Amino acid sequence: MGLFRRTPKTPTPPAAPRVEAAPPTTAMPIIRGDLEAELAAELDGGAPVRGAAFSGRGLRLQHPPEAEFAAAHAQTFADAVRNIDGITLDYSVESLRTVDGVLGNFEEPGSDAVAETVLAAGFYVGEVMVRQHGYRWVETPEHVPLRAPFDLLVVGPKGDYSNPLSKAFKRVENGPEDSVAYFVVAMVAAADRD
Asked: Whole-prediction pTM value?
């Protein structure tokens, strides 16, 4: 049994209200499989114990959290998943289901306790957008409001900004309603409509 497959303790009610709930929209049908049903089942499973949210503490990273090292951070996450759980992540949108599962297992210790791994997962999410949908990593421009401790976003071919790093932390802090798989599908679908 790997690090990412632990059994959560007995659930207790969440201490704080959830932030930025993302209900399924019309973008959902483009996901292969029945992710919408899986998310609904996970949401109905009861409230897990949630650890402390990321405090903004200093992180121990192999590389700075900068655009030029984004792929290296993503690969660190992919390597950890392969080494611990024997699952190979292939940078496909479908692989984000596995990322959701890994991040879901971190709810109990909370994003602050495993911030380095959550950040690496966020880089993996962003790299899926970069490799599959033509996004690129950029420092947050002054005209884009930033509500995160990391000054790094991805921008799509049509100029749409996304924050996969913060989304990974939200997945741990808020649960399946902040699915990273859904996030990527929704962002790409919205950009395609524009």
From this structure: 0.76
